[in-house]
Amino acid sequence: MTADELAVRVLATFRSAVEEILGQLPDFEATTPIEDVGIDSLDLIEVGMIMEDEYGVEMTDKHFEDVKVVGDVLSVFADLARAADS
Amino acid sequence: MPGAIAITCPGLISPAGRGLDALLAAMYSRTSHIGSEEFALNGHTLRTPTARAEFAPADHFAPARLRRMDRLHQLGLIAARDTAAAFGAELSGNRTGVVVGSANRAVTYLEEQYTVIQDRPSRVNPLALALVMGSSLTGHVATEFGITGPSMTVNAECATGLAVLIAACDWIQLGHADQVIVGGADATIAFSAIAMFRRMGALSKPEAGEAASMPFDRQRSGFVMGEGAAFAIVEPAERALAAGRDILGLVLGHALRTDISHLIAPDPSGQAQERVVRAAIEHAGMDAHDVCSANAHATSTPANDVVEANAIASVIGLDKPITAVKGVTGHMFGASGLAEAFVACHSASTGSVPPVVGLSDPDPEVDARLAIEELAVPPGPVVSTSFGFGGHDACVVVDVIR
After folding, report:
1. Is the pLDDT of residue B19 over 80?
2. Does the N terminus or the C terminus of chain A have fewer Cβ atoms within 10 A?
3. HSE, side-chain direction, 13 A CA sphere, residue B312
């Protein structure tokens, strides 16, 4: 899978995880702050758990320490997925 | 009536269905809502009689919300919404209080999450604690209706449903709130709870089937795991009348006492049970013989029923009818006390004492007038009792405006 393909897949997983948790899918971009998506810090952990299942990876608290915008979450999971694949 | 405290806007979901009328109809038609279920965990199975409150969660809550609720919260909010709808005015703000309780918390969800934790601790749901903590239903109710006044979670085990009512009466009397939404709920039908209650010998025999809950009966062998939620508004009677709300009943007197004869077993002498009934009647400023009938806790356990019936009769008189609800519903734990107080209000209003479903052959040790059939007495004050593990004894005296 190319980096672009992986990015598309991670974004799709993120969108479906947010929709599952909030019951709706708000508009956002990579630069949207996480809190503006409407998910709080506990929701974000749940989003992470859904993405863990999707990619067979395990995140730690450290992975989300510096997460501020949607793009940060997508990067964390793209990196984890790539590492798991290699 | 000045200063009288009213129970209004009853909301109820029980094995008999939605609302107080469904429960009363089941009592009068002698319909038990008890079935039997088998539970499995780690290759072990348990079969036990149960009394389920039937409802479709998806009819009441969006999927995203359901992910964050135990059955306890679902039942509680269904009943609380019925109460809020009947109230017909804003509950939001500082002048509404919330007193809610559950005897056994979100035990089903706790079981699920414990299984997850055993496998991989990091996979526990980040909101798990918020669901299993004792105050979770209280928070759900306050949030749902925007209530920012005083709130408190009560656990008096099986007496929780009366304890919330009593606490709210005090708040109204002290002026802490204009109205208090009170409620009790439990959804305890889970493997671990069944295993624990069975091991202590409290549950009805597994093979008893529909006849498993039989208060005061010679053949009773224990209680049936039930579930449900009861909610109401407690407010000054004058305020309810001014707003045009129907008053289900008035709380004339109430008492909480503690049975210290044993951590969980009821006082075999009946003195503790007698004490709380007498205290509630004294609090009402009445003569004990003015009480017209009683609604007993009557769990269908060998240890409770005879002692309780005899204790109540020794206070209010051997000729006063005693009924009980759990033959219909099994034990709804935190919901039982309030649901039973609703039935007591019905008897106070009408003078009709509904029959004890499941009772056909009274224990010969009972020296009291049990409602084997529907009985009629003059409308008037009724006592309702609840006794909880930990020695929590509660009693209220209810009546209606005449």
Report:
1. yes
2. C
3. 34
Closest Cα in chain A to B126: A42
B44 is annotated as an active-site residue: no
pLDDT of residue A78: 93
Q: Are B250 and B237 in contact (CB under 8 A)?
A: yes
- What are the beta bridge partners of residue B51? B226
pLDDT of res. B207: 83
- Opening angle at CA B141, ends B50 and B248, nearest 5: 75
Flag whether residue A36 sits within 8 Å of chain B, measured between CB atoms: no
Residue B1 is predicted with a pLDDT of 64
Nearest CA in chain B to A18: B64
Tell me the shortest Cα–Cα distance from A74 to chain B, in angstroms. 20
Q: What is the ipTM for the molecules in this complex?
A: 0.82
pTM beyond cutoff 0.90: yes
Residues 6+ apart with CB under 8 A from B394: B156, B159, B162, B163, B166, B254, B255, B256, B257, B276, B337, B385, B386, B387, B388
B126 touches chain A (CB under 8 A): yes
DSSP, res A1: -
Q: Determine the Cα–Cα distance for residues B251 and B397; give it in Å rounded to an integer.
A: 6
Residues of chain A with pLDDT under 70: none
Active site residue B297: yes
pLDDT at B208: 80
| Alpha helices (H) in B120-209, listed in sequence order | 128-132, 136-145, 160-174, 191-199
**What residue type is assigned to position B375 of the chain?**
L
pLDDT mean over B236-264: 97
